[in-house]
Amino acid sequence: MDLKTRPRLSPELIAAFAAIVGEKYAATDPADIAPYLTEERNLFFGNSPLVLKPGSTAEVSAICKLATEHRIALVPQGGNTGLVGGQTPHHGEVVISMRRMDKIRDICTASNTMTCEAGVVLQVAQQRASEVDRFFPLSLGAEGSCTIGGNLSTNAGGTAALAYGVAREMALGLEVVLADGRVFNGLSKLKKDNTGYDLRNLFIGAEGTLGIITAATLKLFPKPRSVEAAFVALQSPTAALKLLNIAQSMAATNLTTFELLNATSVDFCVRHGIGVRHPLQAKYPWFVLMEISSTREDAGATLEAILANGLDQGIVDDAVVAATLAQRTSFWKLRHEMSAAQKPEGGSIKLDLSVPVASVPDFIAEADVAVEKVVPGARPVTFGHLGDGNIHYNVSQPIGANAADFLARWHEVSDAVFAIVTRMGGSISAEHGIGVLKRDDLPKVKDPVALEMMRGIKNLLDPHGLLNPGKIL
Fold first, then answer.
1. How far apart are CA 223 and CA 233, in angstroms?
2. How far apart are CA 429 and CA 433, in angstroms?
3. For strand 94-97 and strand 51-52, is the pairing parallel, antiparallel, or unpaired?
4. Confidence (pTM)
5. Max CA-CA distance within the chain?
6. Counting C-beta atoms within 10 Å of the first and last residue's C-beta, which end of the chain has fewer, N or C?
7. Kind of pairing, strands 74-77 and 94-97?
8. Which of 230, 234, 228 is nearest to 311 (CA)?
């Protein structure tokens, strides 16, 4: 069914949907709906006649059953922090906001698991784990507002993926409502369950196109007893890669973060970030934010040994080790301000990519040349998770350029960069998803058989195309 010719909601049908969640939790006033229609980059602006805020899995199920009966399209939404338009209702779909489903159903320290509803804010999950002397390692800039359901639907990565993996690797089981209202009861605390297809993984990273995640059982880990961070200056990504190899050989899995930052990204943060200071006084072209975590009190000694090794080999130019929690927090504030700090510099083309770790230096060098050819004077703002090959290759407009004119060349720039990524065996979306922003690029880089399989799964689970239509495929 064409997205623009779907059935419209009648007043009677709106009332039927509202009755499921209660009138208090059904928004029809444009002013109440408005916050659900835009996203932080202001790239996408949606429209919807109705926002539903279910409080239980049963209510989500009833919504899906009614939607299937009347062929009404639905867009599930978590914290609305997505960056590719996947959570936006582009064609007047009904929005299902999962924020009311914010209960932590169970914490089991014996099995190291926590079962959360989809609307639990990531930071809340982290705090609750800490309260029982456990650690939930998923961490990203939007953790104060993004939700567990959204994290899993986009397979969020974050700054700790080097040691703990991405969201997919932190979920043992899911509860999911299918398009027709059936509930997949896949919550599990088992680390070993070899009973056929791993259905859980179908829904992680599917961006709400196959089902609506309502709850998840998450892995918890031992709480670190010592955490030490350093801000390191180097001459190049090649030097950073050498330091990464040293750190991994000396710290092994205790190396939890290894973030690469170019001078432009750091300068933007210092210039525009509130309360952000440069950790080092001298100017350098590249930096690394490195963190060591340990369940013993040895993180500091390990970090100092890594830095000493790097200095001896001429890899490290300068470094500062956080002497206090406040200083370590200031390092992270600088890192997390990077996206916001680009806004005052004008238009920004943001590309979330991954290449094999060993290829990161070559990728950055080639991408810089390619972007300069497309838009002379454009300023690459390069930062990301070097330890897993995920680079946020953002490009700010030339100084004095017109923002609208620059952003109109988004696909010229992305095509040039994606060509390099594809040749290097990388991915055009490392952790932000596909949504609509990269939907038309996906067929250019995805294996045709893989795309056929994806369409087949979509048709099986959502034959009427009612769940988040027009996203990914």
1. 29
2. 6
3. parallel
4. 0.93
5. 74
6. N
7. parallel
8. 234
